[in-house]
Amino acid sequence: MSAPGTTPLVGIVMGSDSDWPVMEAAAEALAEFEVPYEVDVVSAHRMPREMVAYGEQAAGRGLKAVIAGAGGAAHLPGMLASVTPLPVIGVPVPLKYLDGMDSLLSIVQMPAGVPVATVSVAGARNAGLLAVRMLAAHDEELLARMRHFQDELNEQATAKGKRLRAKVEGTAGFGFGK
Ligand SMILES: Nc1c(C(=O)O)ncn1[C@@H]1O[C@H](COP(=O)(O)O)[C@@H](O)[C@H]1O
Fold it and tell me: How much distance in Å is there from the Cα of 103 to the middle of ligand 1?
Protein backbone atom coordinates (compact mmCIF):
# COMPACT_ATOMS: atom_id res chain seq x y z
CA MET A 1 0.00 0.00 0.00
CA SER A 2 1.25 3.47 -0.85
CA ALA A 3 -0.36 6.70 -1.92
CA PRO A 4 -1.35 6.53 -5.62
CA GLY A 5 1.21 7.94 -8.02
CA THR A 6 4.00 8.02 -5.47
CA THR A 7 6.99 5.72 -5.29
CA PRO A 8 7.33 4.30 -1.78
CA LEU A 9 10.50 5.39 -0.01
CA VAL A 10 10.05 3.19 3.05
CA GLY A 11 8.98 -0.43 3.19
CA ILE A 12 7.08 -1.51 6.30
CA VAL A 13 7.03 -5.29 6.51
CA MET A 14 5.99 -7.69 9.22
CA GLY A 15 5.98 -11.41 9.85
CA SER A 16 2.19 -11.63 9.99
CA ASP A 17 -0.87 -9.44 9.60
CA SER A 18 -1.38 -10.01 13.34
CA ASP A 19 1.53 -7.55 13.85
CA TRP A 20 -0.36 -4.70 12.16
CA PRO A 21 -1.99 -3.26 15.32
CA VAL A 22 1.58 -2.60 16.58
CA MET A 23 3.16 -1.73 13.23
CA GLU A 24 0.43 0.71 12.19
CA ALA A 25 2.11 3.41 14.30
CA ALA A 26 5.11 3.36 11.94
CA ALA A 27 2.81 4.02 8.99
CA GLU A 28 1.10 6.85 10.89
CA ALA A 29 4.43 8.54 11.65
CA LEU A 30 5.48 8.36 7.99
CA ALA A 31 2.09 9.70 6.90
CA GLU A 32 2.47 12.67 9.29
CA PHE A 33 5.61 13.64 7.37
CA GLU A 34 4.05 12.77 4.01
CA VAL A 35 6.69 10.12 3.35
CA PRO A 36 5.34 7.52 0.89
CA TYR A 37 5.50 3.98 2.19
CA GLU A 38 4.35 0.47 1.37
CA VAL A 39 3.24 -2.29 3.71
CA ASP A 40 3.39 -6.07 3.31
CA VAL A 41 3.65 -9.38 5.14
CA VAL A 42 7.08 -10.93 4.53
CA SER A 43 8.04 -13.82 6.80
CA ALA A 44 11.54 -15.25 6.91
CA HIS A 45 10.18 -18.40 8.49
CA ARG A 46 7.06 -18.97 6.42
CA MET A 47 8.03 -17.52 3.03
CA PRO A 48 11.84 -17.47 2.92
CA ARG A 49 12.20 -17.18 -0.87
CA GLU A 50 9.82 -14.19 -1.02
CA MET A 51 11.61 -12.62 1.94
CA VAL A 52 14.98 -12.88 0.18
CA ALA A 53 13.46 -11.47 -3.03
CA TYR A 54 11.95 -8.54 -1.11
CA GLY A 55 15.28 -7.72 0.50
CA GLU A 56 17.28 -8.12 -2.68
CA GLN A 57 14.92 -5.93 -4.73
CA ALA A 58 14.18 -3.24 -2.13
CA ALA A 59 16.96 -0.79 -3.08
CA GLY A 60 16.42 -1.26 -6.82
CA ARG A 61 12.72 -0.43 -6.39
CA GLY A 62 13.66 2.91 -4.85
CA LEU A 63 13.16 2.17 -1.17
CA LYS A 64 15.56 4.07 1.12
CA ALA A 65 14.87 2.19 4.35
CA VAL A 66 13.01 -0.88 5.57
CA ILE A 67 11.08 -1.13 8.83
CA ALA A 68 10.63 -4.76 9.80
CA GLY A 69 8.49 -5.92 12.72
CA ALA A 70 8.08 -9.44 14.02
CA GLY A 71 7.13 -11.25 17.21
CA GLY A 72 8.51 -14.29 19.00
CA ALA A 73 11.57 -15.74 17.27
CA ALA A 74 11.85 -12.55 15.24
CA HIS A 75 14.37 -13.36 12.53
CA LEU A 76 12.81 -11.20 9.83
CA PRO A 77 14.66 -7.90 10.48
CA GLY A 78 18.09 -9.56 10.68
CA MET A 79 17.52 -11.73 7.64
CA LEU A 80 16.38 -8.73 5.60
CA ALA A 81 19.46 -6.82 6.73
CA SER A 82 21.59 -9.67 5.43
CA VAL A 83 20.25 -9.36 1.87
CA THR A 84 19.76 -5.59 1.45
CA PRO A 85 22.30 -2.76 1.67
CA LEU A 86 19.54 -0.43 2.97
CA PRO A 87 19.18 0.52 6.63
CA VAL A 88 16.81 -1.87 8.42
CA ILE A 89 14.91 -0.76 11.50
CA GLY A 90 13.66 -3.65 13.63
CA VAL A 91 10.51 -3.49 15.73
CA PRO A 92 10.11 -6.17 18.43
CA VAL A 93 6.42 -7.07 18.51
CA PRO A 94 5.17 -8.32 21.90
CA LEU A 95 3.13 -11.53 21.84
CA LYS A 96 1.08 -13.35 24.48
CA TYR A 97 4.11 -14.92 26.19
CA LEU A 98 7.41 -13.33 27.32
CA ASP A 99 6.17 -9.74 26.82
CA GLY A 100 8.26 -9.13 23.70
CA MET A 101 11.57 -9.97 25.38
CA ASP A 102 11.99 -12.86 22.94
CA SER A 103 11.43 -10.58 19.92
CA LEU A 104 13.69 -7.88 21.37
CA LEU A 105 16.60 -10.21 21.96
CA SER A 106 16.11 -11.92 18.59
CA ILE A 107 16.40 -8.57 16.81
CA VAL A 108 18.88 -6.56 18.84
CA GLN A 109 21.82 -8.92 19.21
CA MET A 110 23.03 -8.99 15.61
CA PRO A 111 26.50 -10.22 14.62
CA ALA A 112 29.03 -7.55 13.59
CA GLY A 113 28.68 -6.53 9.97
CA VAL A 114 24.90 -6.93 9.76
CA PRO A 115 23.36 -3.98 11.64
CA VAL A 116 19.70 -3.64 12.55
CA ALA A 117 18.59 -0.43 14.26
CA THR A 118 16.37 -1.89 16.96
CA VAL A 119 13.69 0.24 18.60
CA SER A 120 11.90 -0.52 21.86
CA VAL A 121 9.34 -3.31 22.24
CA ALA A 122 6.30 -2.16 20.24
CA GLY A 123 8.21 1.04 19.36
CA ALA A 124 6.83 1.26 15.84
CA ARG A 125 6.21 5.01 16.05
CA ASN A 126 9.88 5.62 16.77
CA ALA A 127 10.77 3.30 13.88
CA GLY A 128 8.73 5.54 11.58
CA LEU A 129 10.31 8.68 13.01
CA LEU A 130 13.80 7.19 12.66
CA ALA A 131 13.11 6.43 8.99
CA VAL A 132 12.00 10.05 8.53
CA ARG A 133 15.28 11.23 10.07
CA MET A 134 17.28 8.98 7.74
CA LEU A 135 15.52 10.49 4.74
CA ALA A 136 15.81 14.00 6.19
CA ALA A 137 19.61 13.75 6.22
CA HIS A 138 19.42 14.27 2.42
CA ASP A 139 16.27 16.41 2.26
CA GLU A 140 16.34 19.98 3.61
CA GLU A 141 12.55 20.34 3.64
CA LEU A 142 12.08 17.14 5.62
CA LEU A 143 14.87 18.24 7.96
CA ALA A 144 13.01 21.50 8.63
CA ARG A 145 9.81 19.57 9.33
CA MET A 146 11.64 17.29 11.76
CA ARG A 147 13.03 20.35 13.57
CA HIS A 148 9.51 21.77 13.80
CA PHE A 149 8.28 18.43 15.19
CA GLN A 150 11.03 18.52 17.82
CA ASP A 151 10.10 22.09 18.76
CA GLU A 152 6.51 20.97 19.28
CA LEU A 153 7.65 18.08 21.48
CA ASN A 154 9.65 20.55 23.52
CA GLU A 155 6.63 22.83 23.95
CA GLN A 156 4.43 19.92 25.01
CA ALA A 157 6.97 18.71 27.57
CA THR A 158 7.41 22.25 28.90
CA ALA A 159 3.64 22.61 29.29
CA LYS A 160 3.53 19.33 31.21
CA GLY A 161 6.11 20.63 33.66
CA LYS A 162 4.18 23.85 34.07
CA ARG A 163 0.93 21.97 34.75
CA LEU A 164 2.64 19.65 37.24
CA ARG A 165 4.26 22.54 39.14
CA ALA A 166 0.96 24.37 39.27
CA LYS A 167 -0.74 21.25 40.65
CA VAL A 168 1.91 20.47 43.26
CA GLU A 169 2.83 23.98 44.36
CA GLY A 170 -0.47 25.68 43.75
CA THR A 171 1.32 28.13 41.48
CA ALA A 172 3.82 27.77 38.65
CA GLY A 173 7.06 27.93 40.65
CA PHE A 174 10.72 27.81 39.70
CA GLY A 175 11.61 25.70 36.70
CA PHE A 176 13.22 25.63 33.28
CA GLY A 177 9.89 26.02 31.51
CA LYS A 178 8.78 29.00 33.57
N1 LIG B 1 8.81 -13.75 13.83
C2 LIG B 1 8.09 -14.10 12.76
C3 LIG B 1 8.56 -14.36 11.45
C4 LIG B 1 9.97 -14.22 11.02
O5 LIG B 1 10.80 -13.72 11.81
O6 LIG B 1 10.23 -14.55 9.86
N7 LIG B 1 7.52 -14.69 10.70
C8 LIG B 1 6.43 -14.63 11.45
N9 LIG B 1 6.76 -14.27 12.70
C10 LIG B 1 5.90 -13.92 13.81
O11 LIG B 1 5.02 -14.89 14.25
C12 LIG B 1 4.06 -14.21 15.05
C13 LIG B 1 2.75 -14.97 15.05
O14 LIG B 1 2.19 -14.96 13.76
P15 LIG B 1 0.67 -15.43 13.49
O16 LIG B 1 -0.20 -14.44 14.22
O17 LIG B 1 0.47 -15.37 11.99
O18 LIG B 1 0.56 -16.83 14.05
C19 LIG B 1 3.95 -12.80 14.51
O20 LIG B 1 4.28 -11.87 15.53
C21 LIG B 1 4.98 -12.79 13.41
O22 LIG B 1 5.70 -11.58 13.29
Answer: 10
Q: Identify the bridge partners of residue 91 per DSSP, sorted by sequence position.
A: 69
83 lines ligand 1 (CB under 6 A): no
Neighbours of 22 (CB within 10 A): 22
| Sequential DSSP letters for 16-81 | -GGGHHHHHHHHHHHHHTT--EEEEE--TTT-HHHHHHHHHHHTTTT--EEEEEEESS--HHHHHH
Q: What is the pLDDT of residues 73-90, one digit of tens each?
A: 999 999 999 999 999 999
116 CB under 6 A from ligand 1?
no
Cα(55)–Cα(68) distance, integer angstroms: 11
Q: Is residue 52 in contact with ligand 1, taking CB distance under 6 Å?
A: no
pLDDT tens, residue by residue, 33-84: 999 999 999 999 999 999 999 999 999 999 999 999 999 999 999 999 999 9
pTM: 0.93
Single-letter amino acid, residue 103: S
